[in-house]
Write a structure and sequence with these properties.
Elements: H1 3-10, H2 12-31, H3 38-63, H4 71-85, H5 90-117, H6 122-140, H7 150-156, E1 159-160, E2 164-165, H8 166-184, H9 186-196, H10 198-203, H11 208-234, H12 241-257, H13 269-288, H14 296-316
Antiparallel strand pairs: 1-2
Length: 326
């Protein structure tokens, strides 16, 4: 297999997600009454980045052949916590933001610790811890409400130079400062090895435990970052189980649409970001075409089924798994 062919094959899911998201967004702005205006792009970006960050969070455990069902609950917990402590002066607000992110990372680390040292299945573990995080969110914010530091919130949901949405800039920085260093690090490569074959990775001296712990800790951090962004958008917090469940399920769908294998060892957080953009744009398309919102799950299901089917076709065409790396 030539180098170019291998790269195209290896990034087929990512390229498909990018192409589909661009096509769908072009259709959206082409039919929007305001067209491709700064306000339309800003609104779409602020909504899409929320799911994109949660999708990135889900990608990391999936690469290790795990699944984090608590990302939505950590997202909601961070939203409730931020609406309580990200207040006061700008300095106090920034300190509150740091605290929220640390709480998210601690939640993720707890997930990883139970999975690694408790030797429990990721699905069962994160389902249980997610319920705990939701309970804490209810304690922090029994009812909807709260506030947030307005200067930070206005900046985070505004535009850079009056053109580029700040949310997209922040998402780019997360990719640049978190995902790319992680992907190229020893621990990041170990996560791929663990997802491909954990036993073989362990026998080869790969730091399996550290790879899992890091993946889940970063997942909690990214989910908390998304919850923080939600607070900046809404100026309030709410311990909503339906919202948490929706973001969890959509994060898994975004991962699949972005070309990451649920069997682990294959994929990219960047693909998950574009997968999230696809799902968010479906909602926008229903709006501009004045279709009933009840159609949204149908269209999301069709897109998800197509993504899964393409991945299955790719695997079925391979007679020998070594062809992945030939």
């Amino acid at each position: 297999m030539s180098d170019l062919r291998y790269r195209l094959f290896h990034n087929a899911g990512l390229l498909a997600a990018v192409g589909l998201s661009v096509l769908m967004f072009a259709i959206y702005v082409g039919n929007h009454p305001a067209g491709l205006s700064a306000a339309v792009v800003l609104t779409a970006a602020n909504k899409a980045v929320l799911l994109a960050l949660v999708a990135m969070a889900q990608t990391l455990p999936v690469l290790t052949r795990g699944l984090d069902l608590s990302v939505g609950m950590v997202f909601v917990l961070a939203n409730c916590l931020a609406s309580t402590i990200v207040v006061g002066t700008v300095g106090e607000g920034l300190a509150g933001c740091l605290a929220v992110l640390l709480v998210g990372a601690a939640c993720g680390f707890l997930n990883g610790a139970i999975i690694v040292w408790g030797r429990l299945q990721p699905i069962i573990t994160t389902l249980a811890t997610g319920a705990v995080y939701y309970g804490i969110a209810l304690l922090v914010r029994p009812g909807p409400g709260g506030d947030v530091q307005s200067d930070i919130a206005d900046w985070a949901t505004g535009q850079v130079f009056g053109v580029v949405p700040t949310a997209l800039v922040l998402l780019f920085l997360v990719v640049l400062l978190v995902w790319l260093p992680y992907r190229r690090s020893v621990i990041g490569r170990a996560a791929y090895a663990v997802g491909s074959n954990e036993q073989a990775a362990y026998m080869s001296g790969v730091p399996v435990e550290r790879a899992k712990l890091t993946a889940y800790a970063l997942a909690g951090l990214l989910a908390a970052a998304s919850g923080l962004m939600l607070t900046f958008n809404t100026y309030s917090g709410e311990a909503s189980a339906p919202i948490a469940g929706t973001y969890t399920l959509n994060s898994i769908a975004s991962v699949v649409i972005g070309g990451t294998s649920l069997f682990g060892g294959w994929g990219s957080a960047i693909g998950s970001i574009f997968g999230a953009f696809v799902l968010r744009t479906i909602e926008d398309l229903l709006f501009v075409f004045d279709l009933d919102p009840l159609w949204q799950p149908l269209f999301q299901g069709v897109v998800l089924l197509a993504a899964v089917s393409l991945g299955a076709v790719r695997i079925l065409r391979i007679r020998n798994r070594l062809e992945f790396f030939a």
